[in-house]
Amino acid sequence: MAAQDLPYAKKTVKTLTSKKYWGRGYTKNGMANAADFIENEMKSFGLSPLSEVGYKQYFSFPVNTFPSKMELKINGKKLNPGKDFIVHQASKGIKTSDSLIRKDSLTYISKKGNVAVSLAPKLTWSVSQKVLDYTLIEINNKTVPFQLSNFEVNIENEFVTNFTAANVMAMVKGTTKPDSIIVFTAHYDHLGGMGNKTYFPGANDNASGVAMLLNLAKYYAANPPKYSIVFIAFAAEEIGLLGSKYFTENPLFPLKNIRFLWNLDLLGNGDEGATIVNATIHPKAFEVLNKINDQQKYLPKINPRGKAANSDHYFFSEKGVPAFFLYTQGGITAYHDVYDIAKTLPFTSYENLFRLFLDFNLELMN
């Protein structure tokens, strides 16, 4: 791997986690801007589109969003969104003030019964395809270590019934066996913004995977192998693997042509090695991977894991495609929160992972 590729990866993560991309989500055109960025990178490397429709595959779905107001005061104290509190992703917007009734050590209900407040040691957010008829708020228990008695809230939600997103795809045609395909996938979406002042950067999850996807695309574009290599950046993973589900139901080439699929998600750490989902489903491939790793000492260890519906490999596996989902372990623990930022991402095993993917693919093609 060329020495300049790690700086490229760091630059890519820094770009995708910047304000312009607003958490690569559902407000301020975050996801669409990220899709454009990825498409432009793929074009700049000289990759071909997968079909005559171009580099993007569009699909739609409903989503609950929080584009504007996100304000909360507890006992007169103003709290910061993302750091001090989060609103549950399926919550209805509300503007009200009320007293709080304690239900148990962690839960309070408003006197009117339309707002629930709970205390949590860590605030992790998500995305929802539905909206509730009440409002749920989680508060960091380190922020308010006191009895809660009253609150003022002004939260605005917008339920979008037909949000349009795009999978971004390109390929390098194989030199001798173009109908045999190796696929790399990584989801580029994250959680987006909660209000108009707070967004979730998603450095490890999953700007790190996108950086690897693009690095590999750049490499294979310059060094075309025997097999065709397809690169797919999926949208809407965080809301239920919707991008990969849509692709497997509307594939742009026969899925039976896929010799192997690598799903890249959470690649920014690695000092404790990595885990392979589907390792127990494909023991021979896992054995090959471990043999390479033992010889080259790329990672401290590679842990096997069974089947799991926890990322974009899943719907391919369900269709009989041999697939591994690799994620790294150790390092920072920031996940689905405002602290998953580019600055603290260690990239511990990044270059070695790159080499591991190349070596495995070479073994597979030979």
UniProtKB/TrEMBL annotation:
Residues 167-359 form the Peptidase M28 domain. SUPFAM superfamilies: Zn-dependent exopeptidases. Pfam families: Peptidase_M28 (PF04389). PANTHER family: METALLOPEPTIDASE M28 FAMILY MEMBER, PEPTIDASE M28 DOMAIN-CONTAINING PROTEIN. This is M28 family metallopeptidase. It comes from Pedobacter helvus.
